Amino acid sequence: MQDPATAFDAASDTYDDNPHHGTIAEALVRGLRLTIPPALVVDVATGTGVAAFAALRLLAPERVVAVDIASRMLDRARAKAVHEDPAGRVDWRLARAVPLDLRDGRADVVLCASSLHFLGAAALHDWLRVLRPGGQVAFSIPMADDFHPSPEFRRMVAAHLTIPSDAAAATGIALEAGFVAARAETTAPASGDRPRRAFLVWAAAPAAPRL
Q1: Three-class secondary structure of residue 13 per DSSP
Q2: CA distances from 51 to 41, 54, 140, 146, 177 (A)
Q3: Residue 204 · residue 178 · CB < 8 Å
Q4: Is pLDDT of 95 > 80?
Q5: Residue closest to 148 by CA, chosen among 103, 188, 197
Q6: What is the pLDDT of residue 87?
Q7: Pairing verdict, β 63-68 and 90-94
Q8: Beta partners for 92?
Q9: What angle do CA 41, 10, 90 make, to 5 degrees?
Q10: Are 65 and 43 spatial neighbours (Cβ–Cβ below 8 Å)?
Q11: What is the chain's alpha carbon radius of gyration, rounded to the nearest angstrom?
């Protein structure tokens, strides 16, 4: 099986040509329910930075940590950052997504657009670790009926994460990991010769217990 970093490096040149990725990233960020700008947003498997840049535009965070294993994806993100992030608020990191190299309880928001099915359930437990009490997560997951990856990418799908068929199963992924107040929406089919619906899921880390 091809190494995942190599596979995603190979896809980097045309990744932004598919509007599906940008649509999902933007919707995930817009669906967050924040009352104040976050101090730290973490974008897991950032790719070319689509969700990280959406967070900058829509959330006005103090800082974004964007992590990916594919160096060419990050090269494209950094090139776009010249215009998208002139203040340099995004910290681009070439690293594995699980576990994140972040201290416990530091993040206000964790984003993961179009990648959870490659990372597996362990990622959700790690996101819960790095989020502060009451922090929010937003991720997407393909809809089982529309999930038809190429043989190469299918071999990279996490073995212990079931691709959901309905919204209840999608929110269940978050609830089973320990998140609360989970909700889900279904994206419209992407344009093209085949549907590519996905579930958008938002949830919160449990609030700190009262003393």
Answers
A1: coil
A2: 10, 5, 11, 22, 23
A3: no
A4: yes
A5: 197
A6: 96
A7: parallel
A8: 66
A9: 20
A10: yes
A11: 16
In angstroms, rounded to a whole number, what is the distance separating the alpha carbons of residues 153 and 200?
21
Nearest 10 degrees: CA dihedral of 185, 113, 115, 167? -10
Q: Tell me how far CA of residue 128 lies from CA of 65, 75, 169, 200, in angstroms.
A: 16, 28, 19, 18
How far apart, in whole angstroms, are the C-alpha atoms of residue 113 and residue 92?
Answer: 16
DSSP string, 122-166: HHHHHHHHHEEEEEEEEEEEE-GGG----HHHHTTS-TT-PPPSS
φ, ψ of residue 170 to 5 degrees: the values are: -65, -45
pLDDT tens digits for range 133-157: 999 999 999 887 776 665 565 566 6
Residue 136 in tokens? 């929010």
Whether a cis peptide bond, with omega within 30° of 0, leads into 37 is no
For residue 26, is pLDDT > 80? Answer: yes
Residues 6+ apart with CB under 8 A from 151: none
